[in-house]
Design goal:
Blueprint: E1 2-5, E2 11-14, H1 21-35, E3 41-44, H2 54-67, E4 72-76, H3 81-90, E5 97-100, H4 103-119
Parallel strand pairs: 3-4, 4-5
Antiparallel strand pairs: 1-2
Length: 121
């Protein structure tokens, strides 16, 4: 898990390399602990090599994100669709959780949200 502080105040928690359910749970909990009341975004792709438990494990991650009150959840790719589904089933509503088809769509969404936040108020 790599934590990076950007000059604009954004903290990035990167757990992309060889992520597994335990490491993603730890990253989500760390994200929440570091948030100090700030908005939190989790951008999650598919965890590979989970075998027959893949859908259940991804679903559980989406549900955990909701229980931890992550502000926005972005599930990236078809393999991560169950992350979004789990979040919705756990009580996510509106735009709290979204599924996008690929990394380009996730980046476009993040850029759009950033421009909205900086042009607001």
């Amino acid at each position: 898990m790599q934590v990076t502080e950007r000059p604009d105040g954004v903290t990035i928690v990167n757990d992309a390399y060889n992520a597994n359910p335990d490491s993603v749970r730890a990253a989500l909990k760390a994200l929440k602990a570091m948030s100090a009341g700030r908005r939190t975004w989790a951008v999650l792709g598919e965890m590979l090599e989970l075998g027959p438990d893949a859908v259940a494990e991804h679903d559980a991650i989406g549900r955990l994100a909701v229980r931890l009150d992550v502000s926005r959840l972005v599930a990236v790719g078809e393999g991560a669709r169950a992350v979004h589904t789990g979040a919705v089933m756990e009580g996510s509503w509106g735009e709290e959780s979204v599924h996008v088809p690929d990394a380009d769509a996730a980046l476009a969404l993040l850029r759009e949200q950033r421009s909205r936040a900086t042009s607001c108020c």
